[in-house]
């Protein structure tokens, strides 16, 4: 998606295409993380002494160092990129002129994303234990977190696109003026799109998580289980083998966490949408 082009950034069909592409990024990132054990010590504060004075966990240290470099190459000046850490340095590249697609807002749900990722996702996809691959786990964690953050914050563009729809704008304005959070949530919800997304995700996760044998046979995780394969067994309580994740885990995490947080971003964005905005005369009544 070229966010320097305003038409691209506000077409609902194009935005949904971006979300579909990000599904692939997220599934592969999760599969990559699932190769390594939980490595809980990378998430606990104070395990190591850090040269940047950080008191947080190894993951936070790593994220901050990486985000500093990314900030220097202006990653976070793009309206679809949100950092997890601060303070960050100014870019060394000249600023790009993004057209003002989004209404000014202060929404950043990365704290919630981090919490859910650590509490719900990592324990589901990784085998318990410690395999000493701390750098590899943290690298994969940052890839998962960045992809999830981008996907979820795309809710802002989607909300803007829905708000700008002339057939809906009047209704949105009324709901926003009444601070009717539930009404806004209901209006922006499209259950058909959500159901199709979950079906597609299950299929994708099944295919991406499969192995192809030398004879070209596709061996899915489900099949391995059915046939009592000797492939690396999942650790007790974990829902994965050491390399692949189950299709249902991905769909479940979208259903319980990715879609609801995206919708939360949409609602929050819309609640701020009228601030400092001149309501057009023809939508006033
Ligand atoms: O596609 C949309 O209309 C969105 O708002 C995105 C999304 C999603 O998170 O995938 C969220 C809410 C809708 O109910 C459907 C899908």
Supply database-style keywords.
285 residues; mainly alpha; two-stranded antiparallel ribbon; 2 strands; 1% strand; binds prephenic acid
Task: Explain what you see.
The chain is globular. It has helices at 6-10, 12-33, 58-72, 110-125, 134-153, 155-164, 169-177, 181-188, 191-208, 221-226, 247-271; strands spanning 211-212, 218-219. A hairpin with a 5-residue loop joins strand 1 (211-212) and strand 2 (218-219). The model is unreliable at 223-243 (pLDDT under 50). The protein is mainly α and 285 residues long. Helix content is 54%, strand content 1%. The chain is built from 11 helices and 2 strands; from the N terminus they run H-H-H-H-H-H-H-H-H-E-E-H-H. Bound molecules: prephenic acid. Prephenic acid is lined by residues 16, 19, 158, 188-190, 193-194, 197, 259, 262-263, 266. Its main location: cytoplasm.
Distance between the termini: 36 Å
Helix percent reads 40-55%
Radius of gyration using CA atoms only: 21 Å
Low-pLDDT ranges: 223-243
Number of strands: 2
- Which structural class fits the helix and strand makeup? mainly alpha
Described by the principal axes of the CA atoms, the overall outline is globular
Bound molecules: prephenic acid
């Amino acid at each position: 998606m070229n966010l320097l082009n305003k038409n691209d950034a506000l077409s609902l069909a194009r935005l949904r295409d971006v979300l579909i592409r990000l599904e692939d990024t997220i599934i592969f990132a999760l599969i990559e993380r699932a190769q390594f054990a939980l490595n809980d010590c990378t998430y606990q504060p104070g395990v190591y002494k850090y040269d940047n004075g950080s008191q947080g966990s190894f993951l936070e240290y790593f994220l901050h160092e990486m985000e500093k470099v990314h900030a220097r190459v202006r990653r976070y000046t793009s309206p679809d990129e949100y950092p997890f850490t601060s303070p960050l340095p100014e870019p060394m590249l000249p600023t790009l002129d993004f057209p003002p697609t989004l209404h000014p807002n202060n929404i950043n749900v990365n704290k919630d994303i981090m919490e859910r990722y650590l509490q719900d996702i990592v324990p589901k996809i990784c085998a318990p234990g410690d395999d000493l691959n701390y750098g590899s786990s943290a690298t994969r964690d940052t890839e998962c977190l960045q992809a999830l953050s981008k996907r979820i914050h795309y809710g802002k563009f989607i909300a803007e696109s829905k708000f700008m729809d002339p057939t809906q704008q009047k209704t949105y304005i009324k709901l926003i003026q009444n601070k009717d959070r539930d009404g806004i949530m209901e209006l922006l919800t499209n259950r058909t799109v959500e159901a199709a997304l979950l079906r597609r995700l299950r299929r994708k996760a099944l295919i991406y998580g499969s192995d192809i044998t030398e004879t070209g046979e596709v061996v899915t995780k489900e099949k391995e289980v059915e046939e009592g394969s000797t492939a690396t067994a999942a650790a007790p309580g974990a829902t994965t083998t050491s390399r692949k994740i189950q299709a249902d885990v991905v769909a479940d995490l979208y259903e319980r966490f990715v879609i609801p947080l995206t919708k939360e971003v949409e609602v929050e964005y819309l609640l701020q949408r009228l601030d400092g905005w001149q309501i057009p005369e023809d939508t006033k009544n």
